[in-house]
């Protein structure tokens, strides 16, 4: 066989694979030696100094747009009857006092007319008594005066006959006759005086009774007029018709609950009811500023203010919440509608010179919060008491001083057992 001759100018290829393997083995050896010399612990870790900052905290919560008290009214009928006219439809804008619906009024008008007639009759009787009563009393007074004059005359005659009889200047018969006439006049005067008193008393009582009848007739007429006014349903507030529950031609009956004709909502008097959990409710105070955005308008921030905190808690999914009411400070640039979802941020009072550390620097074990402080170039565990949180920073109330150096992240260090 022919031999293949190698050409002198053709160089041999280097063995790179063997070289790489040699370098890798050396590197692993050096790394193992370094780890053994350092006790298996990482030699480097990141630290951060404890500093003071200004905390401008806020509490965020989810809420809903709700009508204020008195901003949503369900208009209903207080009397039964047939709906004759309905002047409203969903979405209509109405003004306070505007007629919304009318019931049949014929029967009610007839009752009102009857009441007016009874009042007129009572007024006529009262007027007649006021005019005739004093005349009858004057007649009785005149009769009593006449009988008083006769009585006085007969008394004097009886006295004169008695004197004459003692002087034997008159007979017994004339004396007895004068005495009898005196006694009769006296009796008639007493009777007339009693009749005058009775007439006065009767006039007074009749006048009182007729005045009461007039008053009662006026009240009865007023009741019928009010019932007639119930047949015309007017808007108690200005707003928009949100729902219509009754139609023209229907007959409504009043039972234990008043039948609702329409629901009116004043869109200018809406508020945000947001639910703050029990962890944050202690930070919320009336008068704090707030902003909220709506799911329908996520890019628009609307300014508000905390106006109420409901005392009763709400339990949702085993979490305790409290209803916090936020009211718009000025007219919002968009139309708010009930039941819209709102994302609310309530701004707390800023706090100056707050000791802070990164939140990831603080760990918790057994109910105790702790950090690692660098002492003599070595991390030492120290218990701390934390306060509020802002972003990625935590307030340190107790356990650290400004300038202390702590581990930024516990993952950079493992404590020796």
Short description:
The chain is an alpha+beta fold and 417 residues long. Helices cover 34% and strands 35% of the residues.
Would you mind describing this structure in some detail?
34% of the residues lie in helices and 35% in strands. By secondary structure, it is of the alpha+beta class. The chain has four domains: 47-55 and 351-412, Beta Barrel (conserved putative lor/sdh protein from methanococcus maripaludis s2 fold), CATH 2.40.420.20; 59-69 and 267-347, Efflux pump adaptor protein, beta barrel domain (Elongation Factor Tu (Ef-tu), domain 3); 72-103 and 232-264, OB fold (Dihydrolipoamide Acetyltransferase, E2P) (Beta Barrel); 107-230, Helix Hairpins (Orthogonal Bundle), CATH 1.10.287. The two termini are 76 Å apart. The relative contact order is 0.18. Mean pLDDT is 84; it is low at 1-27 and 29-43.
